[in-house]
Here is the input.
Amino acid sequence: MNPHITRTEHSAPTREFSVTLSPTRRGARLARLLTTAHLGEWGVPPESAAHIVAELAANAAVHGRVPGRDFRLSLAVHRDELLRIEVTDTRGERPPAAPSDPGPHAENGRGLLIVEALADRWGTVAGPVPRKTVWAELDLAPRPAHRVADIHDPVDRDPRDRDPVGHDA
Here is the structure.
């Protein structure tokens, strides 16, 4: 079986939430608060997801901001096994830089390192123009070893597959 041809789709989500927010610090804060509230209501531990949303929403507000255009937060739980977080902004021409060590004295630049540390998987999807979506997934239940490979989607672009200059590897 060729892994570049096979693409496993997630089942239909059992719970979904999506909201459009202003690309401001207030909008990013509201994204985190809404995530905590919805996941708590769904019985899903919100801690890691809230941190991931805080970082992705802050990036959308700072790096993905286009005046007059909002960003979208989407949460989906699939079969009580997987939480998918998506943050979509309207700066598709600016993909996130690969996570790197910003140095001990830097005041920013650690957001994607936090996402990488907390998420089981994450990546980006370009389009439709002018949008891009940065997504992260958290496993809610332990997965059997044979299923881990089934969910990997080789079509999605993963920022970790880029060289330090930002060109595709």
Remarks:
- The chain has four helices and five strands.
- The radius of gyration is 16 Å.
